[in-house]
Amino acid sequence: MTNASAYVRPTEQDEVAAAGSELIGGPQGRRALSGLPGTWWTPLRVIALAAIGMYALGMVQKLPCYDGSWFSGQTAQYVHACYSDIPHLYNGRGFADGLVPYFQRIPDDVSGGMDYLEYPVLTGAFMWLAGKLTFGAGGIQREEQLYWLVNAGMLMVCAVVLVVCVARTHRNRPWDGLLVALAPTLALTATINWDLLAVALTAAGMLLWSRERTLASGVLLGLATAAKLYPGLLLGALLVLCWRAGTWRAFGRALGGAAGAWAVVNVPVMLFAWDGWSKFYRFSQERPVDFGSVWLIIQQRTGHSFEGANTYATLLMAVGCAAIAALAFYAPRRPRFAQLAFLVIALFILTNKVYSPQYVLWLIPLAVLARPKWRDFLIWQGCEALYFLGIWMYLAYTGSGDKHQGLPAEGYQVVILIHLLGTLYLCAVIVRDALLPEHDPVRRDGSDDPGGGVLDRAPDVFALSRHPLHERQADAGGAEGAGAPVKWGARPR
Fold first, then answer.
1. Which segments carry the region annotation Disordered (predicted)?
2. What is the pLDDT averaged over residues 454-464?
3. Which DSSP string corresponds to 405-443?
4. Among 224, 237, 228, 236, which residue's Cα sits nearest to residue 356?
5. Cα(159)–Cα(161) distance, rounded to whole angstroms?
6. Which end of the chain offers a freer environment for a tag, N or C, measured as fewer CB atoms within 10 Å?
7. Stated pTM of the model
């Protein structure tokens, strides 16, 4: 257990955090009692309460839609920027009729052309459970409202799990979790869709990896992948890092746990409801270029449809992953797990043919673990908050008929570019931290990879270049001399 006096206080190292703390009395002093035995106001409790408060504000922001805009036509819910998929899919995916997702086809009169639920199995189970808890409301509109409230309550639990896991992943930096708790886009997008389930499971998996519980970490990452596809990409980041460190057994346990957990959730549905199970994958493949992507800008500017967007996106993703792998093998110090995790998920988002506003939730915990600097985080969050408003104003413009009230296509393209540039900016500073470790705020106190588990302080066994740090490791005995002291501390395996 980390002593409270060993905690990294952001107000001592981060000028933006120090300036912001003036609103609540100034930077934390050396004699502050927070985190000491017998003190109720521990960092975890403060962060959890802050997350609940921000989450509640996000629910309040949806109040105009809850009071009627979800049901009075499309434009009102966009003008108030309070749209959510949740109430619309209660009836639109058959939950109002008690249908079992994947096993029962959705009636044509409510589905809008979607014959089966287009979500991964664990998310579908989450939606179905919330539907079972929605009963006796009296009228379809009231049931949709209650369905949103039930989901919001369940997702709030996911939000608390998320911030607690992030706060505990780096033992000596619990206050970094406050960045997640206070993230504006967490409040704004948490109840648009069900992404928080996968995000919370991913954060829990990363926490367990940091505690060297590799099999359990893999199980949670597998469950997260059964809820949303993107967490599976984190295994690619672990592959190259474990390759460089030679920790193949740890990677194998994580991979086996992930594959097993994913199979336990998916195989029964695959065997008995193939058409329903495969709908998510078919829909992802067949979906055309959509909101928020760079492909939409090109499509709107050129007037040509991108029927080959899947191919282009896949090629760019492959090239980008190769570049990230090269970074992992070339960097003078092995990049931290969170750094590579952020880069690979950001690459997926940047190259994808659609960017829904709630996808920002995927990156928030990774951004905090990879680059816990308030200035950079808030710059990125500002770009994402602007995109959140921009997409709703664009939909209001396209849905208002001849009135054209909202943001035209040209304005929406600018907003997409701002979102893309904000994400690229954060990618750039993280790449710089990997190439110049002295700029990494996590490593400033002499840490190596506090979220890396078996990777933390492990000596390298493979790298693409010979840096002075590698030479010092070789002089100390390399992998065989893992117990020999080096600057950043190789530890016995």
1. 470-493
2. 91
3. -S--HHHHHHHHHHHHHHHHHHHHHHHHHHHSGGG-TTG
4. 228
5. 5
6. N
7. 0.90
